[in-house]
């Protein structure tokens, strides 16, 4: 073989090697029967919608236990941190000074009642004599004035008796609600008084509980827009079922109901405060707990959903591979809605009846033949598993 012919073969061999290297580093070369992918047919259906927020539990009645009278604290009658009942005695202020005040007020009332009796007897004697002109009109007027003054003094004395009785009652401090008690801020023997330092403890009602969560302005506007456009159909009267998900991912057994929505957005956070009320008969929920709040009952009307893994990201945004009649695929841009469970709700781009690639989409290239298989019979079709929470 001539040296000139060997010189020609060497460049050809190098070129062939470069071609092979390029094929191995770039897109995979499809087999003769096409790239194997799993494809599904897009379907439109009503899909249950779930919206998730972060919430915080609050007591429906968090009561500060304060003293209304001044005196020495005789006793603390509850175990700190225990569950207390409405009407249960918590503290006892020394009642003896108030008992003395009540006795004095009752004695004053008896005295004024006796004076009233005397004044009325005098008026009864004076009135007939005045009518017969046996006494002057001035004497009659004086008798009438004495009677009215005595009656007023009786009423004033009776009011002082009621005030003394109230003070004596206030010396025994009871819980106004059933709930969880806190620690006592004062020790036995301490002097307590009405005013800023009158706090003795707090009691938090545990049944029912409040769940407060915030909805951002963007979420609120998007929600209203989707309802107006018909994409989202809320429950009748927008009466959502509210599920409470605890920190260990268990769903609380009682369903909550929305009972309050603030009149406007918070100027500090631009969020809307929403409150749900939930029964807590066993005391499992405690104030201050953070939970996940799931609003259920709405429906995505005639919606198309696709598995999250079917959506690709390109320079122009999100797309799915749509399979044509010739067995090849082309990218179809899609408008993503919320991510619900493992599926994207689509607001546009993929039409019902179109076939799209579910698994193997990362290997697909435009114009490359595909070998299609259906999803497993266990049910990974778009509308088969719609019930997960919406994120984003």
Characterise the protein shown here.
The protein is an alpha+beta fold and 392 residues long. It has four domains: 107 residues, conserved putative lor/sdh protein from methanococcus maripaludis s2 fold; 104 residues, Efflux pump adaptor protein, beta barrel domain (Elongation Factor Tu (Ef-tu), domain 3, Beta Barrel); 59 residues, OB fold (Dihydrolipoamide Acetyltransferase, E2P) (Beta Barrel); 76 residues, Orthogonal Bundle (Helix Hairpins). The chain contains four helices and 24 strands. Strands 2, 11, 12, 13, 14, 15, 16, 20, 21 and 24 form a ten-stranded antiparallel β-sheet that branches. The protein has a four-stranded antiparallel β-sheet with strand order 3-10-8-5, with no helix packed on it. The longest helix is centred in the N-terminal third of the chain and has 36 residues. It is elongated, with a radius of gyration of 42 Å.
How would you briefly describe this protein structure?
The protein has 392 residues and is of the alpha+beta class. It has helices spanning 3-25, 96-131, 137-170, 217-229, and strands spanning 35-41, 44-59, 62-66, 71-76, 83-84, 89-93, 172-174, 179-181, 191-192, 199-204, 209-216, 232-233, 241-245, 257-261, 271-278, 290-307, 312-314, 317-323, 329-333, 335-340, 343-348, 355-359, 370-373, 390-391.
| Fold-level CATH name of the largest domain | conserved putative lor/sdh protein from methanococcus maripaludis s2 fold
CATH architecture of the largest domain: Beta Barrel
Helices and strands: which structural class? Answer: alpha+beta
CATH class of the largest domain: Mainly Beta
Biggest pleated sheet: 10 strands, antiparallel
Number of domains: 4
Number of helices: 4
* N-C termini distance: 72 Å
Sequence of secondary-structure elements: HEEEEEEHHEEEEEHEEEEEEEEEEEEE
Shape: elongated
Low-pLDDT stretches are 1-31, 379-388
Proportion in helices: 25-40%
* Average pLDDT figure: 86
Question: Using DSSP, what is the number of strands?
Answer: 24
Rounded to the nearest angstrom, the radius of gyration is 42 Å
* Beta-strand percent range: 35-45%
